[in-house]
Amino acid sequence: MFTVEFRQLKYFIAVAEELHFTKAAERLKMAQPPLSQQIKSLEEELGVPLFLRSRRHVELTEAGQAFLKNAYAILKNLDDAREEAIRIHNGEYGQLIVGFTGSVTFDLLPNIIRLFRERNPFVNIVLKQLTTSEQVKALHQKKIHVGLLVSPVDSSLLSIEKIREETFVAVVSADHPLADSEAKLNAESLAKYPFITTPRSTGPAFYDAAISFFHNAGYSPNISQEAHELHTIVSLVSFGMGVALLPRSFQAINHPRVVYKELNDPFTINISLAYIKEGNSPQLDSFLTLIRGHFIE
User: Fold this and answer.
1) What is the residue-level pLDDT of the chain in tens, covering all 297 positions?
2) How many of the other CB atoms lie within 10 Å of CB of 191?
3) DSSP secondary structure string for all residues of 9-26
């Protein structure tokens, strides 16, 4: 197996392009004798002459012409490899796996991903819709790099950064007795009807906020249905299975069979970033920088 040094390729290309050892040495800012010795060593390593030399003339042999073509390709591949390594180190290449809850799908997530892709076109973004609890588990298992979830969450391994507060509204079917009410709805009026919510196991902060709306007013909701996906809750409400409390952003679902109503005592949940405290990738650092600069309220 032969060994060729990177600098020998550069020396060879300089001589091949100049076809003059002295001019090539000047171009390389080195003395001519060491350059000649390096070319001779390269030819000995390859076992073929690369140049035909005379006192006044230097030209490439047929083998030298073939070697020049491949030398260009080798240097280009090395340059490409270096460029790719730098881009990966800077977070411009690679992969980023983002977990998200349904409450961010209408405005926050699309805006974040659009801007991130504009700035990092070579990063492959993989999106996974997961509940808050599933995101925490996936982060611990390193199956996702970052999550957009409802906080607070109970984990000493995660860094949590609040992005914004999301205000809740009531959701009723279009033919529900409360649909035509001019007044803002309260816990007392909603507690009279079957209530649809997510299981607490999927996202304790989301569930507790909705239940506390009733408890703070001295009422308990009549939970009749549970659904893991917030979009499913909208569908269940639409055909009269009950009423619900959902983030205001869900009004973007222009469902003809549901009506969104303001609450007399509105409450909020926190939408936050979550990621493992140690060992962040360059891609994640770029993602966090983007959100901190443009989306955190």
Assistant:
1) 667 888 999 999 999 999 999 999 999 999 999 999 999 999 999 999 999 988 788 999 999 999 999 999 999 999 888 887 887 777 677 899 999 998 899 889 999 999 999 999 989 999 999 999 999 999 999 999 999 999 999 899 999 999 999 999 999 999 999 999 889 999 999 999 999 999 999 889 999 999 999 999 999 999 999 999 999 999 999 999 999 999 999 998 889 999 999 999 999 999 999 999 987 888 999 999 999 999 997
2) 17
3) HHHHHHHHHHS-HHHHHH
Chain-centre distance of CA 272, in angstroms? 15
Distance CA 110, CA 104 (A): 8
- Tokens representing residue 275 in the block: 């990621």
R_g of the chain computed on alpha carbons? 33
DSSP code string of 76-120: HHHHHHHHHHHHHHTTSEEEEEEEE-GGGTTTHHHHHHHHHHHH-
72-89 b/e with 16+ CB inside 10 Å = b? eeeeeeeeeeeeeeebbe
DSSP letter, residue 202: G
Domains and CATH numbers, the chain: 6-89 (1.10.10.10), 93-162+271-294 (3.40.190.10), 166-269 (3.40.190.10)
Residue 284 host element (H or E): helix 282-294
Bond preceding residue 34 cis, omega within 30 of 0? no
- Cβ-based burial of 173 (10 A; exposed 0-12, middle 13-18, buried ≥19): buried
Q: Provide the 3-class DSSP secondary structure of residue 71.
A: helix
Q: How far apart are CA 241 and CA 173, in angstroms?
A: 9
Q: How far is CA 201 from the centre of its chain?
A: 26
User: Tokens representing 168?
Assistant: 């809740």
